[in-house]
Amino acid sequence: MNILITGLHGFVGSNLVKALAPKHTIYGVDIIAPEKEGVVRTYSWEDLERGEVPVADVVIHLAGKAHDTKNEAKAEVYFKVNTGLTEKIFDWFKRSGSGKFVFFSTAKAAADRVDGVLTEDVEPAPVGPYGESKIAAERYILNGVDGLTEGQRYYILRPCMIHGPGNKGNLNLLYSVVSKGIPWPLGAFDNRRTFTSIDNLSFIVESLIEKDIPSGIYNIGDDAPVSTNELIEIICRTLGKKPHIWHLSRGLMTFCAKMGTVLHLPLNEERLRKLTENYVSSNEKIKRAVGVERLPVDARDGIRKTIESFRE
């Protein structure tokens, strides 16, 4: 099939190209257009507006403004990119007669915090312009599905934290701390989080492309959540180091975080919440749709693979 991928020069796009190029013909739309192995040609967004991009069997929309953890990006930038570009490519998809549209949203479009397990039927309650711009893009798609032809399908994917070789995200930051032998002082907080291995993500996208799967919204994540303490242990054992996890009093660490907020220290209340909160997402709906009981890569094996890539 002919597959058009927007934002294909990013981390997820590069991995999808590697996974799909052996069996499919890949084209791209991006703000940059260097030659890329496995890609026939990368077009600009201006080419798309001029109607110069070839019709594809499948459109995978990845292009977007990633979450700025430093909160320095302005809200209008998120909406211009995450919502605006989605509107452009989805309108093009409807006109072009392409068969399938795969939109990469985010779990943060559904919920900033999770009590229990996140499922697709939750009433979305994003917090901040990143999640809000993504849910606005989702709603634009859902409001436009009546204009699809009978054979066209759409998939809105809400992945949790994606990781893998080449990723530059929060796992890198945690790895840089642990690899220096710095003890982890938050062992008393036993949280659990869902991660998404890039290999499992690629498997799901391939399945959406090649199988007859109903349109809809799908959470994406590995089968089992991982606690931050487990994550520290995996990093240490991958490095051949002994884990140093301190189970200091939760009350003490909470007090330190409050002081950190006042004094503008690295450990503040917001960072403590992010490091210790639970965020578990169910992937049962996508597994039923794909027809598997388990995804190919175990959550912990996927994290080990990512950590080993940092060493290299």
Could you characterize what this model shows?
The model has no long low-confidence stretch (mean pLDDT 92). The protein has helices spanning 11-20, 45-49, 75-96, 129-144, 170-178, 198-210, 228-239, 250-263, 269-276, 284-290, 299-311; strands at 2-6, 25-29, 39-43, 58-61, 100-104, 117-118, 153-159, 161-163, 195-197, 216-220, 280-281. Helix 1 links the parallel strand 1 and strand 2. The strands form three sheets. It has a seven-stranded parallel β-sheet, with helices on both faces. The protein is 41% helix and 15% strand. The chain is built from eleven helices and eleven strands. The chain starts with a strand and ends with a helix. The protein is globular and about 60 Å long. By secondary structure, it is of the alpha/beta class.
Mean pLDDT across the residues is 92
- What kind of sheet is the major sheet? 7 strands, parallel
Please indicate the percent range of residues in DSSP E strands (runs of 2 or more): 5-15%
Radius of gyration: 20 Å
Low-confidence stretches: none
Main β-sheet, spatial strand arrangement: 3-2-1-4-5-7-10
Structural class, please? alpha/beta
Number of strands: 11
Q: Report, as a whole number of angstroms, the end-to-end distance.
A: 35 Å
Helix count from the secondary structure assignment:
11
Could you spell the SSE succession in H and E letters? EHEEHEHEEHEEHEHEHHHEHH
